Amino acid sequence: MKTLPVEPGAPRRPGELAEAVREACLQAAQAAWEAAGTQGLCAEGRWEVAIGALRSVDLQALVQAFDAASGST
Questions:
Q1: Other CB atoms within 10 Å distance of the CB of residue 60
Q2: Is the entire prediction scored with pTM above 0.70?
Q3: Which end of the chain is more exposed for a tag (fewer CB within 10 A), N or C?
């Protein structure tokens, strides 16, 4: 499972965590969609795989990385 890298010491602004979550979800869905396509799945099957990838995004790890990078505990 892939999470977004968060640069240590980077300035934080309101909504940045939400943007990081959205980007992680988009990356997971796109990678799953493309992988399912190379396996020969139809559009409906690719969609189901993409939804599964969204459900598997490790949000807790993303929040922890975000907190660590922003100096929160």
A1: 9
A2: yes
A3: C
